[in-house]
What does this fold into?
Amino acid sequence: MQTLTHKDEEAAVSASDVVLVAFDGVEAIDIAGPASVFSKAELLRPGSYRLHIASPSGGNVLTNGGLSFAGTCNLRQLPAAIDTLVVAGGDEPGVRAAIVEQRIGAWLAEVAPGVRRIASVCSGAFALAAAGLLDGREATTHWRACDQLQALWPQVRVQRERIYVHDGPVWTSAGVTTGIELALALVEDDLGHAVSMEIARTLALPMLRGAEQPQLSQALQAQASASHRLRELVAWIGTHPQDDLSVEALAGRVQMSPRNFARAFAAETGRTPARFVEQIRVAAAAQLLRQTQWPQDRIASLSGFGSVDALQRAFARQHGLTPQAYRTHDQT
It folds into this structure.
């Protein structure tokens, strides 16, 4: 049997216990996404995390998609010193049963004082609210459930247009895949930006959105009612902000006349090509402002703006503030 070196023992002792809480009816990605992020962080920085997947009764947990998580830990058998606790979301009957029948809210209220930070993914926010952990705090959940969360717990300051919200020791995230971005933010909080970005690259994320980005991206909203031809063009625009995105160039890509293209694009996406292109370029610039300390002229060039002045005017139209103010606000 392999023996631990002194360095290995030190790492094992110092590793933070991260608990992902599941229940029957849980959304599989709400567990698998954060689990992947924390496990990759452990590979990059050995000794950082010990990961536990737990459930009210332990054993096998059936997800709402028919998959199962085998051998989960019983909540009552978890380590005494939990560093990070993440409650997943799921279908409404599953979340309700977890709160009402399995008393997950009561358990959270009991253990919360000893946990450094507590988080939720999607409708997991309802369990945190039931425990009183969101009282007087800003929080978010899936966009379809924000009104319900606000109605049931009016003392929660629900943020409807946020990817995730960090208020004191409590973090909440929006629907499903935003759990990955929440976990990356938690890792960045612990291990730094470089580690978080390396994990994002390993997971092949198309982009890493900031906390204050809308839950539904501009591209996804534009694709919702667009024809197949324009859906593909919208996706292409989103990954090529530096290219020539004039009406003439875009019309040529879909083999339409500029006039017919402009009319069809506006009718199918609800915005003109010029407005959509500006939104995509501002989003690209915002990502660079969050993730780098590059000067504005470089960011303007990489996000497709012809000048810093054009970047600043577009930011003022969409965000009501300058790029520098946006960068400063995002880092506070």
User: Anything to note?
Assistant: The longest helix spans residues 273-291. The beta strands are 16-21, 49-55, 59-62, 68-74, 84-87, 117-120, 138-139, 157-158, 164-167, 170-173. The chain is about 50% helix and 15% strand. Confidence is low (pLDDT under 50) at residues 1-13.
